[in-house]
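Just wondering, does anyone understand what follows?

——
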Amino acid sequence: MNEEIILIGKEKVEGNTIGDMIRKPVERNIFGEEKQVYSSTFFQAAAVGMKAEKILVIWKFDYNEEKYLIYKGIKYEILKTYETEEEKLELTCTSDIKKKEVNAYGNS
């Protein structure tokens, strides 16, 4: 596992010099490897309106419920995780990140 992956965790809030609160995402560099996206995974994601583009394999202990990552300069949303028997985790990702809007009825 020699590919660099940047996990993007929850934002931390910091005050600047004049006291304004600024949200900053927490980024951590880890190593992993890319795995082939099988057609079954691709079509399962498409059936629920998602686009599975990458599967990245990382060590289980490196993952802290992050929702986003950067791989080869592209930001991805983590759609799902799958734990393997080797203490590794497969992250199924998409670069098709959409902002979720909520209407007056609570639906997006």
User: Anything to note?
Assistant: The chain has one domain: 3-12+23-94. The chain has a mean pLDDT of 83. Helices lie at 39-47. DSSP finds one helix and six strands in the chain.
